[in-house]
Amino acid sequence: MTSTLAVRPRRGVVTARVALVVYLLFVGFTVWLPASVSSKVTGLVGITARWIAEAGIAPYQQSAVLLEILANVALFVPVGLLLAFAAPRLRLWQVTLAGGLMSVLIETVQGLMPSRFPTLSDVIANTTGTFLGALVAAVLVALLSRDPARARDRRLGS
Q1: Which pTM does this prediction carry?
Q2: At what angle do helices 11-32 and 60-86 cross, to 10 degrees?
Q3: What pLDDT, in 10s, does the model give residues 90-112?
Q4: How many other CB atoms are there within 10 angstroms of residue 129's CB atom?
């Protein structure tokens, strides 16, 4: 009789892994398309910055820079969230490091593309987004893994 050491991952982990792959493909297409094509997506930053400037809230350049940073953070929040659920044994710092390394890879490839410009601020923003996503995952796991019966027993002093 043979025994297998392989343990089947839970369905939620498999779902998270599939979602992570799909999302990373989306990120790859977004960040590695030529600038002329990706500007159709990132053009939303310019439109929003222009609206902010026309409303007299803040100058266009300041708004565009801030919105670009926030867009990069937002782009990587799902990476941290999905990676934390796809690889539940990873710690918060490991998920954050993985997101940071992904961002370094993205910026390195962009540096080889004639129409793209790598920046350190993108690496920082992407890594921050990964951290925030992983933090949300950790909080969700902590909230959802509470055993209500055990919590009730603790309150009763048992």
Answers
A1: 0.81
A2: 150
A3: 999 999 999 999 999 999 999 99
A4: 26
